[in-house]
Amino acid sequence: MTSRTAEETTGASATGAEGGRCGSPFEVLRIFLRLGLTSFGGPVAHLGYFRAEFIERRHCLADSAWLHGLKIVAVAVVAQAVWGMARNLCPDRERATIAVGVAMVVLAIPSALGQIGAIAGGGLVGWWLLRNGPQLPEQELLAIHLPRAWSIAALASFLALLVGLPMLAAANPSHALALFDSFYRSGSLVFGGGHVVLPLLQAAVVPPGWVTNDAFLAGYGAAQAVPGPLFTFSAYLGTVMGPAPNGWLGGLICLAAIFLPSFLLLIGVLPFWDTLRRRSGVRSALRGVNAAVVGLLLAALYRPVWTSAILGPADFAIGILAFLMLALWAMPPWLVVIFGAVAATVVAGIS
Q1: Of 137, 186, 252, 324, which residue has the fewest beta carbons closer than 10 angstroms?
Q2: Residue 205: exposed, middle, or buried by beta-carbon count in 10 A (0-12, 13-18, 19+)?
């Protein structure tokens, strides 16, 4: 009991001393001036520099109220994504059933294997159950054509990396290789929109201890205020990661790995797309996969997003207001991020 108290007292005094330095206007100006002159990598990477400077090095901020507010905003963002995708991709009872079934499977088997199996199962069920769905209107042929040799090489590269990287990572203890493998696999399995990458990335970086769950959700909430595709969130994860390579090098590795499968698949499928989209079985399977994606995101809304952020009635109130601002008032995400951080800080002050 005595040693624990002494440890807490020492930590509190150290934090207080650093906090006093961080609270000085001149000190704040000096730190941000140096960060502005030396930080590279874009807004998402800057979040990692800020975290390293103010939380890890100076202990100016801990698991603080504004950080919790960003996690609550992540709940509203994912809820809005589930709401919008369900309306478009699960408009009937068959696809809604697929989505709910996938959510149950993913929650029961919280691993990358469970997510892959759920997506594949959604495609199989769609191929069998949704063959009588509405036919797509005739569309013009694609004007972009590539040599088939390029497409075959791209598809072969995609599959070789998807199958070979896990084996190489298992045989080689390199963290850089494991990092590339995890983010490449996440980018390969994303269907239906950027938000679907959330559960895949969370499963890739949080269980191994590369990134804490709090840092993951707070960064995801803050990323809503940054323009650009949500895949750039991978740069933040690579930057704030504990094991090396991290920083700007880790951010570049994660960013390249998560985007590479999209380029390979695009090049590989383009010459065959006009033929594939006319087949009813392919369209039915894709409808099932899209419904499965909604279920995947629904499971992510509960765990890890909801269970890590909504801890009481006040959190629920902030979250539902943030959802209202996003979904019905169509307010810009950056404004909702500020609202969540300020509201959580005010509630913490009142408590």
Answers
A1: 137
A2: buried
